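Most newcomers find our protein records easier to grasp once they have seen one. Read left to right, the backbone structure tokens trace the chain's path through space. Nothing more is needed to start thinking about how sequence determines fold. An example says more than a description, so a record of this kind follows:
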Amino acid sequence: MTKLMTLSPTVHRDVCDVQYVNEKSVKIVQKVMIGDDTADALAETFKVLSDPTRVKILFALCKAELCVCDLSALLGMNDSAVSHHLRLLKALKLVRYRRAGRMAYYSLDDEHIEKLFQQGMEHVQELSYG
């Protein structure tokens, strides 16, 4: 038999205790609120970054331009699996490649991606050391 828990009035919740809308603040944010397309694109970016292998690929590409073979050796994966991850990252313009003869070298698409990645790393490191 399970005992039901009830919340006592002294339990703190992360919600407002009263219903009050600060109209001034709401109007300020409303003027600059992102649209659905932007929110969807950003959510897709974070969704792709939710895979540890893709995070490792981005970390490696923050450090150096690498080909699929390099990434495969680094991650201990086959070329096909790495290529699959790179296709997803490329589709969201997180990485790009350049051809040099028969080789394709991958790098981060631009400095925004590195900044996003570095900010995420700082956040995670603060959580683990704080």
About this structure: Helices lie at 23-32, 36-48, 52-63, 68-75, 79-91, 111-129. The beta strands are 66-67, 95-100, 103-108. Residues 111-129 form the longest helix (19 residues).
